[in-house]
Amino acid sequence: MFADQTLSLLAKTDKLSSLPTEKPVKVGDWTTSELGLVTYGYWMTKSLRYIQDGVVVSTLTLTDYEKARRTEYRLDGKIYINGSSSDSWVFGSPGHILESGWEEDYSVTKTELVISRPALYNSKPAIWEITLTRSLPQ
Fold this sequence. Notes:
The chain is mainly beta. The chain has helices at 34-39, 64-68, and strands spanning 5-12, 18-25, 42-52, 55-59, 70-73, 78-81, 84-91, 96-99, 102-108, 112-121, 124-135. It contains two helices and eleven strands; from the N terminus they run E-E-H-E-E-H-E-E-E-E-E-E-E. The strands form two sheets. An eight-stranded antiparallel β-barrel has the order 3-5-6-7-8-9-10-11. Strands 1-2 form a two-stranded antiparallel sheet.
């Protein structure tokens, strides 16, 4: 999917004539699109934390399970945790992912995916944030 392709197109000039043609389409590799960045490879949990007023108020200690958890955002719109389908996802408005009904902010690079959403911490408004690091296919 993330490779250059040649597509056959049919250009219609009016109802009576058409002109078949082939045009190469430069797609680029996985690093050139948000879709590629989110879906290529899998993600390992780096940190879980709560932020209030721009200040980190709590960094949660990761369990062995959380450290070893392998998360994949697949092209079919499903999230897989350690190889088992768990939830669904889709891009929302720019900078947002809808994950099993939750609208979450996200930012993604070649190496990190940061997802955050509103939460409460000590009964006060906060941001819950998970940072994932990429693990590439072998």
